[in-house]
């Protein structure tokens, strides 16, 4: 209660100083004065008026998690499902309540705009996703959407007037659950012709086409999907608030992570084919075991990654399947899926090259056929924009919050937005770094800190 009262007093003192300024000098445009305060000249009064409605925000996070196809505490919310449609309605309602003008594009990326005093300037965009993989938690993505709407509320309550328009986005389908395509909405926004074409023939595991699924959710795709594409420069900045999904901030007791780069993944599919045979009858010198070829390649992936000399290079064989999968049968086929990431694209591509060479060498030495070596995707990493890093950093300093610059090893919609807009990300700590499981948790005060930093950063970017 005491803190509530002091918050009210603080915000009253902010407004009274505001009134005093405008009555002192009638030519003074109070809007501009507020802008100056937010651009760092007289920041102290405005800082104290940045109050997050923490309990309300937590209630919204809880309410949104109830739109789920699995029981609490797990959350399952798959693209264009009934629950996804309900959750979308919930987000649009909150955007409306915050006074944002809401629009949706053809695939259901949802935008809510607060028009600035100079609407002709490129707006500042913030947001994340709310879809959730099966049996996951309620914070991944959600913090960056509900938190963004609350950041707008924070700015509005403080009396701030944006110069550049501020816009909140909820991206369609960050998770690849339904159609096997991650960051579907942001890839399209970034103008992926390849994805536009692919979506014409994409079906889910139930053989429902992307277009039919979208229609179910109320989006008719008969218009050309290139209507979703954004031109480079449509936004002056994009910034995403997200839980860290790793343990560093919590372990080190740091409030805010400022992302400097997002490591980008490449994924590779590999198939080996041998002759198979009876596990007893075929003698060792006569074998060409596709399973052992796969095992050797898995170890080669680890070796090449470690050889890169950088801690930022990682590689994983997450799928290794053997055919026919019987104890008494020599594997005649093997299938591997390899994920490798780095913040340095050249270094990562060198690892891919080495993996390819190893696959060829193994197929030769083991006399198995390398029937497929397919690079499924090879996205470039993204660097955050210096000016956004600086704005976030000074926001942390002004709010007296500890912060650390760090790399995002998971990728996000930000990776693709970086192709068309200067990009930045704000991380908050989460319990033990857990994510994509029901135990995922971020403390309300950590979420509130993230929202405050986001609000102040948006304020600064709006005036820049
Ligand atoms: Zn996410």
UniProtKB/TrEMBL annotation:
One Pfam family here: Peptidase_M20
Keyword Signal: yes
Record-level GO cellular component terms: endoplasmic reticulum
BP terms from Gene Ontology: allantoin catabolic process; purine nucleobase catabolic process; ureide catabolic process
Signal peptide: 1-20
Catalytic reaction(s) noted: (S)-ureidoglycolate + H2O + 2 H(+) = glyoxylate + 2 NH4(+) + CO2
InterPro entries given in the database record: Amidase_Cbmase, Bact_exopeptidase_dim_dom, Peptidase_M20
Known pathway: Nitrogen metabolism; (S)-allantoin degradation; glyoxylate from (S)-ureidoglycolate: step 1/1
Keywords: Endoplasmic reticulum, Hydrolase, Manganese, Metal-binding, Purine metabolism, Signal
Cofactor requirement: Co(2+); Mn(2+); Ni(2+)
Glycoprotein among keywords: no
Enzyme Commission identifier(s): 3.5.1.116
Any one GO molecular function term: hydrolase activity, acting on carbon-nitrogen (but not peptide) bonds, in linear amidines
Broad EC category: hydrolase
Subcellular location(s) of the protein: Endoplasmic reticulum
Similarity annotation: Belongs to the peptidase M20 family.
Subunit structure: Homodimer.
Protein name per its UniProtKB record: Ureidoglycolate hydrolase
Organism the protein comes from: Erythranthe guttata
């Amino acid at each position: 209660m005491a803190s509530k009262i002091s918050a009210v007093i603080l915000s009253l003192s902010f407004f009274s100083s505001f009134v005093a300024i405008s009555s002192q000098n009638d030519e003074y445009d109070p809007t501009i004065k507020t802008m100056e305060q937010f651009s760092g000249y007289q920041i102290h009064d405005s800082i104290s008026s940045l109050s997050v409605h923490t309990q309300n925000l937590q209630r919204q996070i809880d309410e949104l998690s109830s739109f789920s196809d699995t029981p609490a505490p797990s959350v399952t919310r798959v693209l264009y499902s009934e629950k996804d449609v309900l959750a979308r309605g919930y987000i649009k309602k909150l955007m409306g309540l915050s006074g944002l003008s809401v629009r949706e594009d053809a695939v259901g990326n949802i935008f809510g705009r607060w028009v600035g005093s100079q609407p002709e300037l490129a707006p500042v965009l913030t947001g994340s996703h709310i879809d959730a993989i099966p049996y996951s938690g309620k914070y991944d993505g959600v913090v960056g959407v509900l938190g963004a709407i609350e950041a707008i509320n924070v700015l509005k309550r403080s009396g701030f007037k944006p110069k550049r328009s501020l816009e909140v986005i909820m991206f369609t389908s960050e998770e690849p659950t339904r159609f096997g395509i991650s960051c579907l909405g942001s890839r399209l926004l970034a103008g992926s012709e390849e994805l536009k074409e692919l979506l014409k023939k994409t079906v889910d595991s139930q053989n429902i086409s992307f277009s039919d699924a979208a229609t179910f959710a109320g989006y008719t795709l008969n218009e050309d999907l290139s209507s979703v594409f954004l031109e480079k420069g449509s936004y002056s900045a994009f910034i995403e608030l997200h839980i860290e999904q790793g343990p560093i901030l919590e372990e080190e007791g740091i409030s805010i992570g400022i992302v400097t780069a997002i490591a980008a993944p490449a994924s590779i599919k590999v198939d080996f084919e041998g002759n198979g045979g009876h596990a007893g009858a075929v003698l060792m010198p006569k074998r060409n075991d596709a399973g052992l070829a796969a095992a050797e390649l898995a170890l080669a992936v680890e070796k090449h990654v470690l050889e890169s000399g950088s801690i930022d290079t990682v590689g994983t064989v997450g799928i290794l399947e053997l055919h026919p999968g019987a104890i008494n049968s020599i594997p005649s086929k093997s299938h591997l899926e390899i994920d490798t990431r780095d913040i340095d694209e050249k270094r990562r591509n060198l690892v891919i090259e080495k993996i390819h060479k190893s696959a060829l060498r193994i197929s030769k030495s083991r006399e198995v056929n390398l029937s497929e070596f397919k690079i499924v995707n090879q996205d470039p990493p993204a660097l955050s924009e210096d000016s956004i890093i600086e704005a976030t950093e000074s926001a942390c300093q002004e709010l007296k919050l500890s912060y650390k610059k760090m790399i995002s090893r998971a990728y996000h919609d930000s990776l693709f937005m970086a192709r068309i807009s200067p990009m930045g990300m704000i991380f908050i700590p989460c319990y033990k770094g857990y994510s994509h499981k029901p135990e995922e948790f971020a403390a309300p005060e950590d979420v509130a800190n993230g929202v405050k930093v986001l609000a102040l950063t948006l304020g600064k970017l709006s005036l820049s």
